[in-house]
Design goal:
This protein is mostly helical. Helices cover 89% and strands 0% of the residues. The protein has two helices and no strands.
Length: 158
């Protein structure tokens, strides 16, 4: 077998390699941390959407119950009416009350939906902004590591 010459890596080169690896590790840590925060934000956003949808569904059930009870009350009043004019008056009052109630219900549901949308949009905007900032930080750390490595490599060894 041929004799392989012994080659020792200078301590400066080992230090440079260790520093470069550590800087790359830090940059990656920043990046992965950003990705984890984005995933957490996404989970929070889906939880917010689920809760908002549940609130709207519950409010719709409450409104439906209120509307059906009002119809039963009208039916009971109509059954007790003594004349056609009285029945027509009861019907007219019912229509006015239900129209006003349904307008209020629609306004309330619209407000719930709009609030949920705005909260979701704000969370998404905030998450995207944080992700961009974290990514820029990771890129900057990577660039700094490259520059330091290049600068150290250009220094004459003693």
């Amino acid at each position: 077998m041929a004799n392989i010459p012994s080659f020792e890596v200078p301590p400066q080169m080992r230090d440079l390699a260790e520093t470069s690896v550590e800087q790359a590790r830090k940059a990656f840590g920043t990046f992965i941390g950003s990705a984890r925060r984005a995933a957490d934000t996404l989970h929070g956003s889906t939880e917010l959407a689920r809760t908002s949808a549940q609130d709207i569904y519950t409010r719709n059930l409450d409104n439906a119950e209120q509307n059906v009870r009002a119809a039963f009350d009208l039916a009971q009043k109509l059954a007790a009416a003594r004349s056609l004019p009285e029945a027509l008056q009861l019907q007219a009052e019912y229509v006015r009350e239900r129209f006003a109630a349904m307008q209020a219900q629609a306004k309330e549901l619209g407000g719930l939906a709009q609030g949920a949308f705005q909260q979701g949009a704000e969370r998404a905007r905030s998450a995207v902004q944080q992700g961009v900032e974290d990514t820029q930080k990771a890129v900057k750390q990577g660039q700094d590591a490259v520059q330091q490595t290049q600068h150290a490599a250009e220094q004459p060894s003693h």
